[in-house]
Design a protein that fits this description.
Low-confidence stretches: 1-31, 89-106
Number of strands: 39
Largest sheet: 5 strands, mixed
Structural class: mainly beta
Strand content: over 45%
Mean pLDDT: 88
Shape: globular
Oligomer: single chain
Distance between the termini: 4 Å
Radius of gyration: 23 Å
Helix content: under 10%
Number of helices: 3
């Protein structure tokens, strides 16, 4: 009997469920599978990378791991964060590990002992360290732990030039990152952390752009990141130009990496600068605190065309343009910046950039935000971010310390906010909010009943939208409101999978 084995069709479906992609023959061919409308299914594997928090003997770091309850089916799975191999920027011996591996020599390896293991979806777990040389972490989640998996790294530094609250949502590996808002100025110590999660070396290129264009650099090309390792690089050592506002572009020619910039600014504090959303014509930076004393916008147009964008604050009641700064001209491949001062004027807000007229030129952008003044000021960064979409989340929320900012740049939207069970006790709570179009709504989350420990927040768009979100975590120490802001892009917990069927009517004996 002449036929196509059905096991091949099952194999194609299984491949699609894992990768989100299936290669199919043209519809209508006899005995071949046909792709129909795609379905969204939970991912079966997730990867997250946390940069090294070390560098200060006065640092206290908390890691938090969380997966939403009911986000996926299948096997129970695991979610673990393990130490990467620590590699100093000038550690040539460590960089030779990749070559040693090919030559059959023994290489440095990361520890197999997890720093953090998630036991079950719906309840976060935490771990603490005060080690000044704490390594970067490489994480993998599988099965029911994978869809929506989030990890947060929060570091409190009580004194010194790096004092402040540094927060970063551990990110997925990629091959392309944009960081507007970095600096090579003398008053700044900006380190780019590159982390390689894979078993083969990655090779990265770093480009720097200032207000006059590309900055001269002889050492930014071909940076080797050894297998399962992390490399920190001081940006000011990559160029001889000392520039206040710099856009950093990281790409990989081999492999993939996680990337984040650790900023320490004299007399102003420190925090992590994470990557902007991919270049596009309209950007939203959500979650400017109501009491911000200074807001600086840094933007960059990576293409061949200049960009003219409209600058709007999406405030509590309506959008408006800052006086004297209603538009911004961004020259091609030159970093533009503008000081918006205390643009929120005591009300919460989010910034939107959109085309002035005509063609939408892709741009990237971020905000440097200051609270307080003098020796009591503290900084944080808000990069442009993707919408929440179906679901987004953030871990490490603490009692009376978190504020959730929800922004609807277009139509009015309904969002559901779930506060998970506490890491040490308490039951989840759920509340729905209406976000009026063109405005920003700041809410103090309804904490889990009987909360003990920390909790996670999950935001889901119920109707309308799109919605952009950010979480501000504030911890007051010594009269200083130390704070950090994390954006909440879609968690990527589901993927489109083509439905594959077999037309049995064409099979012949």
């Amino acid at each position: 009997m002449k036929s196509t084995p059905l096991s091949l069709i099952a194999g194609a479906v299984a491949l699609a469920a894992v990768t989100g992609f299936a290669a199919l023959n043209a519809p209508g061919e006899a005995g071949t599978p046909v792709a129909k409308a795609a379905s969204r299914l939970p991912v079966e594997r997730s990867s997250l990378l946390c940069p090294s928090p070390g560098g200060s003997d006065l640092a206290e770091t908390t890691y938090t791991s969380f997966t939403p309850a009911g986000a996926g089916g299948g096997e129970a799975g695991t979610a673990e964060l393990k130490p990467a191999v620590p590699v100093a920027a000038d550690d040539e011996d460590a960089k030779d590990d990749a070559k040693d591996k090919k030559d059959g020599k023994k290489e440095k390896t990361a520890s197999d002992k997890p720093v953090l293991s998630l036991k079950e979806p719906g309840k976060p777990v935490t771990a603490d360290t005060s080690a000044s040389d704490a390594p970067a972490l490489i994480g993998t989640a599988t099965g029911r732990q994978a869809p929506g998996w989030a990890a947060q790294q929060t570091t409190a530094v009580s004194a010194g030039s790096a004092r402040g609250l540094l927060g970063v949502s551990c990110g997925a590996p990629d091959t392309d990152f944009w960081f507007p808002g970095a600096s090579t100025a003398e008053k700044r110590q900006d380190y780019i952390h590159l982390t390689n999660p894979d078993d083969d070396a990655a090779v990265a290129d770093i480009e720097l752009y200032g207000p006059e264009g590309s900055l001269t650099s002889d050492v930014g090309d071909g940076i080797t990141v050894p297998p399962r390792s992390s490399v920190p690089l001081l940006l000011s050592t990559l160029t001889g130009d000392a520039v206040d506002d710099v856009t950093v572009h990281v790409t990989t020619r081999e492999g993939r990496v996680g990337a984040a910039v650790k900023v320490a600014e004299e007399e102003a504090g420190s925090d992590w600068l994470t990557a902007s959303a991919d270049p596009t014509g309209t950007l939203v930076m959500p979650g400017i605190p109501a009491d911000a004393t200074s807001v600086r916008l840094v933007a960059f147009a990576p293409g061949e065309d200049d960009a003219d964008v409209k600058v709007q604050l999406l405030g509590k009641n309506a959008p408006f343009s800052p006086a004297g700064n209603d538009t911004l001209h961004i020259k091609s491949r030159m970093t533009a910046s503008v000081d918006l001062k205390d643009v929120t004027r005591g009300e919460p807000g989010s910034l939107r950039l959109s085309p002035v007229a005509g063609k939408a030129t892709p741009v990237v952008a971020a905000l440097r935000v200051v609270r307080g003044s003098g020796d009591k000021q503290e900084i944080a960064y808000i990069p442009a971010t993707e919408p929440v979409g179906g679901r987004a989340g953030v871990a490490d929320n603490r009692a009376k310390s978190s504020v959730l900012s929800l922004t609807a740049p277009g139509a009015t939207a309904e969002v559901k906010v779930t506060a998970s069970a506490g890491s040490e006790g308490g039951e989840q709570t759920v509340k729905t909010y209406t976000v009026k179009g063109g405005t920003t709504l700041d809410v103090t989350p309804e904490e889990p009943s009987g909360l003990k420990g920390s909790y996670a927040l999950t935001v889901e768009t119920e109707s309308g939208g799109p919605v952009h979100a950010a979480r501000t975590l504030t911890i007051s120490k010594g009269g200083v409101k130390t704070f950090t802001v994390q954006t909440l892009p879609n968690d990527g917990g589901t993927v489109d999978v083509p439905t594959v069927t077999q037309d049995l009517s064409v099979l012949e004996d």
